[in-house]
């Protein structure tokens, strides 16, 4: 830790800070709601051959990378022969 950071932390603790953990910050709100995740699950349940590009066209407010991440979190690990392979059979 450099000297400037040490002085900053010393000043913070003198001013009443009690923890070294980061303070909670307000960030940009997520556009990915439970409702949208459910719609993505339903779309994949209806047609497991949907590509990320097709899902992106269906959900233009969500980036392709976030769609891919969401699909992976749902248990769809990869696209094999143009059908999403499920790690967990929860959305079949």
Architecture overview:
With 92 residues, this protein is mainly α. The protein has a domain of 57 residues. 46% of the residues lie in helices and 10% in strands. The chain is built from 4 helices and 2 strands. It has a two-stranded antiparallel sheet with strand order 1-2. It is elongated, with a radius of gyration of 21 Å.
Separation of termini?
Answer: 51 Å
Number of helices: 4
Largest sheet: 2 strands, antiparallel
Biggest sheet strand line-up: 1-2
Q: Roughly how many Å is the radius of gyration? A: 21 Å
Unreliable residue stretches: none
Mean of residue pLDDT values: 81
Order of helices and strands: HHHHEE
Shape: elongated
Count of strand segments: 2
| Secondary structure category | mainly alpha
- Share of helix, binned: 40-55%
Strand content is 5-15%
Provide a concise account of the structure shown:
This is GVQW3 protein. The protein has 92 residues and is mainly alpha-helical. It contains four helices and two strands.
């Amino acid at each position: 830790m450099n000297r400037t950071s040490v002085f900053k932390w010393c000043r913070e603790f003198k001013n009443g800070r009690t923890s070294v953990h980061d303070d909670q910050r307000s960030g940009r709100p997520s556009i990915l709601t439970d409702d949208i995740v459910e719609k993505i699950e339903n779309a994949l349940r209806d047609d497991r051959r949907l590509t990320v590009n097709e899902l992106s066209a269906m959900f233009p407010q969500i980036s392709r990378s976030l769609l891919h991440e969401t699909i992976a979190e749902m248990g769809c690990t990869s696209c094999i022969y143009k059908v999403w392979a499920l790690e967990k059979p929860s959305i079949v």
